[in-house]
Amino acid sequence: MGRDKLFLTLLDRPLLGWVLAALQSTPSLSQVVLVVNGGNMEAAQQLAANFPQVCAVCLGGESRQGSVAAGLAQARDWEWVAVLDGARPCVTPDLVGRGLEAARQTGAAVAAVPAVDTMKMVDEAGTVESTPPRHRLWLAQTPQVFRRDILAHAHLHPSTNATDDASMVEALGYRVKVFMGSYDNIKVTNEEDLAVAEAILRRRRET
């Protein structure tokens, strides 16, 4: 987006503030580690001062994996860890709470929603190779919730092909439970997403 989306104003607060507000209202969650890049450290600390659950604000790594590892280092005594993407302002306390419940079944759980469009596997030339059965395809979101020792184990054996923490855990043979996410739980990656997120949050305020 050409600027740091996490601190763009969404209605009356920074986008990241919506995520922290949801976590603050999640009864089963007691502490939050906020992982940010160096350019956002001061702004993140100022924002965190409004949310007592934030116990640490730390510098992230050069990749998603590095940033989660940095957060884990601040949470050494925790039994359970929920990893959330700060760019999902429409996350709800209910979604986080259900993630913690689902993770207790296998030690790992990921929010996801069933794919509604037909998906195509294509080669590097852009030619369709296959059409996977849609009823078996789910689109992963966050929160992703893990027993801390399982996630720490995965980060000791990082995969260069992993695009999220759940895939790292899967690669080591752990069972990962899928629980129903929300189609409202969008990730803001462009201006259009920002407008959709604002509409979702405005609708919630009015109902």
Overview of this structure, please?
There is one protein chain. The two termini are about 30 Å apart. A hairpin with a 2-residue loop joins β1 and β2. The chain contains seven helices and ten strands. The chain has one domain: Spore Coat Polysaccharide Biosynthesis Protein SpsA, Chain A. α5 (about 150-155) packs across α6 (about 165-170). With about 210 residues, it is of the alpha/beta class. The strands form four sheets. Strands 5-9-6-10 form a four-stranded mixed beta sheet, with helices on both faces. A two-stranded antiparallel sheet has the order 1-2. Helices cover about 35% and strands about 20% of the residues. The model has no long low-confidence stretch (mean pLDDT about 95).
| Total number of strands | 10
Give me the CATH superfamily.
Spore Coat Polysaccharide Biosynthesis Protein SpsA, Chain A
Largest sheet: 4 strands, mixed
What's the helix-strand series? EEHEHEHEHEEEEHHEH
CATH first level: Alpha Beta
User: Could you say what the CATH topology is called?
Assistant: Spore Coat Polysaccharide Biosynthesis Protein SpsA, Chain A
Domain count: the total is 1
Beta-strand proportion:
15-25%
Helix content: 25-40%
Strand order of the largest sheet: 5-9-6-10
Per DSSP, the total helix count is: 7
